[in-house]
C-alpha cells in the first residue's frame, strides 16, 4: 500500500507559484518541477499534477476546472439518486396496478 502524505493547501500553492516563477530559469517546466519537488519533499509527478490543475483553473490549459469537476460530480450523484427514485416509483406503480387488477369487483 502506498504511503499518502497530505500537503497543506499553502504548501501546494507555494510550490506551484515557485514553478511558475522559476521555469524561465530552467530548460523546461519539467526541470523546474523536478528541482522544486526535491526541495519541498514531494515527488515530481505530484507537483506536476498540482501545476496542471492550477493551469486548468487559471485558463492557461484546456480542461475541466476544479469548480466544474465538483459541479459535475454533484450532478452525477443527483442523477443517480433520481434514477433510483424513478425505479422505486415505477415498481410501486406496477405493484399497485397489479393489485387493482386482482381486486374482486363488488
UniProtKB/TrEMBL annotation:
InterPro entries: Homeodomain-like_sf, Transposase_8, WH-like_DNA-bd_sf. The keyword Cell membrane does not apply. The keyword Coiled coil applies. GO terms for molecular function: DNA binding; transposase activity. Residues 65-95 form a coiled coil. GO terms for biological process: DNA transposition. Keywords: Coiled coil. This is Transposase. It comes from Nitrosomonas ureae.
Amino acid at each position: 500500500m502506498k504511503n499518502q502524505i497530505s500537503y497543506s493547501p499553502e504548501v501546494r500553492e507555494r510550490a506551484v507559484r515557485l514553478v511558475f516563477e522559476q521555469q524561465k530559469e530552467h530548460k523546461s517546466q519539467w526541470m523546474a518541477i523536478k528541482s522544486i519537488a526535491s526541495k519541498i519533499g514531494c515527488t515530481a509527478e505530484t507537483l506536476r499534477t498540482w501545476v496542471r490543475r492550477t493551469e486548468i483553473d487559471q485558463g492557461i490549459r484546456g480542461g475541466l476546472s476544479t469548480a466544474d469537476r465538483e459541479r459535475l460530480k454533484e450532478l452525477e450523484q443527483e442523477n443517480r439518486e433520481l434514477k433510483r427514485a424513478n425505479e422505486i416509483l415505477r415498481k410501486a406503480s406496477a405493484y399497485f396496478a397489479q393489485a387493482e387488477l386482482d381486486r374482486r369487483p363488488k
